[in-house]
Input
Amino acid sequence: MQGNTREDERRRKRKGACLAAAAMTVLVLLYVGLLVVLIRGEENLFFDGILLVYIAGGLAVIIGVGLALKQRFAEISRGEEEEAKKY
Output
């Protein structure tokens, strides 16, 4: 019975991590989409360059969120939190 409880706890933690990653990704995609709309309406190359830097930063955040989610899944499957609670 206790083994099932641990699996339920891990499933809950994975779900929470996915929801947080999804929320952050949606927010950054909205931000990047807004910047793309601004670029399409602007003809100033300097302004376009600045917006492209911000777009690249947003895409880097999305990649970082994905990598952090992958790392969090690994921590959950290894049970690192349960081990840390012992100390």
